[in-house]
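INFO  loader      accepted 1 record
INFO  loader      residues=132
INFO  predictor   begin
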Amino acid sequence: MRHWTEVFDDDDADEQLVRPYTITSGRTSPERADLTLVTLVTTVPEGATQATLAVRRMQPEHRTILALCRESKAVVEVSAELGLPVVLTKILIGDLVDSGQVWARSPRPFTQRGELSDMAILEAVRDGLRKL
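INFO  predictor   done
INFO  writer      dumping tokens
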């Protein structure tokens, strides 16, 4: 069985095609509203949890997400690496968050207390563009 994103020749017409909704067990929208394009996803250290996907069987894409997210990655980066639409990626990441295998958090704000404000950054960019 081949993945739905792989290119098929006419000779492969009889081979079954794995559709995106089969990867997510028919789910078409994420259950978690907190996963945005810039949400950072990180695999939980192996010793920190013994959780498994008890309700749904783990798909190969779940394993790929776990491998990709050993270092923090944005949801959109994971989606690009998987070659899947963002909506499907959010569903898969939501499964892993719910099972305790990955952490998802919003990115830290660019500025911290005592650093430049957003307006100062925008003004610096504007001034730099004017110099060009």
